[in-house]
Amino acid sequence: MRTGDGQTSSGTPMGRRGFLLGSAAALGTLALSGCTTIKALSMAEAEQAYGPLPDERFPIEAVNLNKVAPKYWRRTVRYDSAEAPGTIIVDPRNYYVYRIEGDNVATRYGVNVGRAGFLWSGDAYIGRKAEWPVWTPPREMIERQPEVAKYAGGMPPGLDNPLGARTLYLYQDGRYTLYTLYSTRQPETIGKGISSGCIGLLTQDMMHLYERTPVNTKVIVLKA
Questions:
Q1: Is 134 helix (H, G, I), strand (E, B) or coil?
Q2: Would the CA dihedral through 23, 82, 72, 45 be positive or negative?
Q3: CA distance 67 to 50
Q4: From residue 218, how far is each of 83, 112, 120, 186 by CA, in Å?
Q5: Is residue 2 a part of any domain in this protein?
Q6: 123: closest CA among 31, 2, 21, 35?
Q7: DSSP structure string for 65-115
Q8: Is 107:99 a contact under the CB 8 Å cutoff?
Q9: Nearest to 218 by CA among 119, 108, 98
Q10: Is it the case that residue 196 has pLDDT exceeding 60?
């Protein structure tokens, strides 16, 4: 989901072409050799990790785990990388997001990604974070989908807001790219290409990542 947020950002938003010009040198520093699970969630642990969140501003129901393949449940994996702990690596080809923990270990989350024609790759950083954000569709989306024009002034936070409960905004060179890591309450979308370029995590996973991700965290999006 390529999207605006209705809030002030420094500079002019970059288009998808600009985002594709990420640092090849940074991608070259990755030493990836596949993943081996160190700790996977049992069903009981998964039911707890993906349980209801009644104390949120807008209470969130438990994830229907029958709609998510177990390989996309949050887990700790071996992931060889030269990147610093905290770095986020997006692997759209395999529908995963990794948070580097150090010592060649990462936390892995299942995600949805951009559909055909909206995939992108490159380097960025988290320029801003938001809880229960306002969503404002960008001009290009309104042109493609006139039905969202009613939200040109911003869609209020809530369970029906496309950005969900938590959002991490991707920036390059001080400019908002119009791409995000966002939370979704639609478990059936995990492991699929459905958005206009943004990366969706289950709400409980997004909240887990959000709390561990400060502003200025490096993000690398690999080629699909």
A1: coil
A2: negative
A3: 12
A4: 9, 20, 16, 27
A5: no
A6: 21
A7: GGGS-GGGS-EEEEE---SPTT-EEEETTTTEEEEEEETTEEEEEEEEEEP
A8: yes
A9: 98
A10: yes
Per-residue pLDDT band at 78 (split at 50, 70, 90): very high
Query: According to the model, what pLDDT value does residue 169 have?
Result: 96
Residue whose structure tokens are 């979704």: 184
Provide the CATH number for the domain around residue 36: 2.40.440.10
Q: Does some domain include residue 3?
A: no
Q: State the total domains in the chain.
A: 1
Structural domain contains residue 133: yes
Confidence of residue 151 (pLDDT cuts 50, 70, 90): low
Asked whether the predicted pLDDT for residue 2 surpasses 60, the reply is: no
State how beta strands 218-221 and 166-172 pair.
unpaired
Q: How far is CA 118 from CA 3, 17, 92, in A?
A: 12, 11, 11
Which tokens is 90 given?
């997006």
11 assigned to some structural domain: no
Identify the three-state secondary structure at position 38: strand
pTM of the complete model? 0.82
Q: How confident is the model at residue 108 (pLDDT cuts 50, 70, 90)?
A: very high
**Residue range(s) defining the domain that contains residue 198:** 16-221
Q: Which residues pair with 218 in a beta bridge?
A: 125
Residue 3: the pLDDT is: 55
Q: What is the pLDDT of residue 21?
A: 43
Average pLDDT over residues 139-148: 78
Rg of the Cα atoms in the chain: 17
